[in-house]
Amino acid sequence: MPDPLIALLVFGLIVGGLIAVFYPRLGLAARLRRILHLSERVRMEDALKHALHEQIEGRFANTNSLAGALEITRHRAATLLIALERLEFVSIDDDGVHLTDAGRAYAMRILRSHRLWERYLADRTSVHPVDWHLKADVAEHRLTEQEANLLASRMGHPLYDPHGDPIPTERGDLPPLEGVALAELGVGQLGTIIHIEDEPAESFERIVAEGIQPLMRAKLLDASPAMIRVSIEGQEHSLEPMLARNITVHPTVADDRDKALSALSEIRPGFEATVVRISSRCQGPQRRRLLDLGVVPGTTIRGELESATRDPVAYRIRGATIALRRAQADLIYVDEIHAVESVVEKDDHARAM
Q1: Cis bond upstream, residue 200 (ω within 30)
Q2: What is the spatial distance between Cα 141 and Cα 109, in angstroms, rounded to a whole number?
Q3: Measured between alpha carbons, how far is 175 from 154 in angstroms, rounded to an integer?
Q4: The pLDDT of residue 173 is above 70
């Protein structure tokens, strides 16, 4: 006969296992159902976002494009589209997938959350630019509409994400993105970078490695089928045409921003200069810190004290002495450099009066 204690132990383990699996709301089965439901919702939202992207590009999504975008089988893509059609988020005909008003509004909300979160990561965190897109892909499905609106309000209702893509408004309006590919500029022509495509990730990573960002000024130096040579913020870059096609610029003409400027790092103790602008290469927390210190156009900065290696250097900024690394000072452009009149010179000048 089996040992009663062993039998009781086995029974307890079985009951405990059943409770762990089927306990309401907290059991493994309930958790698995929630995960499957969440995964299904995420798939549907991704499908709506893909349909919106194709519509913005002047195309219609279809089973093949959806399967490729979501990396799923054609059968799974077809099932998703049928489910979305039943929910009246899309209509399907021979041309492809058409978003209904309800489907477009839903997709626009997801896109708004995605781009707002990318803006948040760029401005308020030290997350590497290459990781913005993937993290936003997760956050976009978790942010409620109210949370997205609150986030937008806290950031001052930004108009563009860090890649230069317009952020849909709370009403669902999406301003058009206008411009030309970098390689389409004429040799010697200037342009302001307004957008950098973040997909495929490998291409975006290479552009980031070059230090290229939206709002930078670019000048096309030379173009050939093999290489595009361009000057961006005074630094020369050689880009493959494939990479150059992922950079959109707005053609412009030369203005005061294109005149020769000096970097703050060139200012020695005893000299001062006026801030013209902060380089577009300076983004996120670093840019915010400089602005908080008063490094804004028109501010006069004076060189105070330098270390033996000239890194860091102490500067006088709005009455406070601030130490900046050379890498930071290189990002601050100044003009009107002149020697500071010493206290003795000031006294002599006053007596002469």
Answers
A1: yes
A2: 10
A3: 21
A4: yes
Looking at the chain, how many residues does it have? Answer: 353
Do 28-99 and 262-343 have matching folds? no
Looking at the predicted structure, is the pLDDT value of residue 36 above 50?
no
Taking alpha carbons only, the member of 205, 114, 218 closest to residue 165 is: 114
Contacts of 30 (CB under 8 A, 6+ apart): 22, 23, 24
Angle at the Cα of 101 from the Cα atoms of 96 and 103, rounded to 5 degrees: 65
**Residue carrying the six token digits 């200037």:** 190
**Exposure string over 287-312, b if 16+ CB within 10 A, otherwise e:** beebeebebeeebebbbbebeeeeeb
CATH fit for domain 180-258, picks 1.20.1200.10, 1.20.950.20, 2.30.30.90, 3.90.950.10: 2.30.30.90
Residues 97-155 have pLDDT tens digits of 999 999 999 999 999 999 999 999 988 888 888 999 999 999 999 999 999 999 999 98
Domain residue extents for the chain:
28-99, 180-258, 262-343
Run of H or E including 72: none
pTM over 0.85, yes/no: no
Can you tell me the distance from the alpha carbon of 48 to that of 43, in angstroms, rounded to the nearest whole number? 9
pLDDT of residue 126: 84
What whole-number distance in Å separates Cα of residue 132 and Cα of residue 64?
27
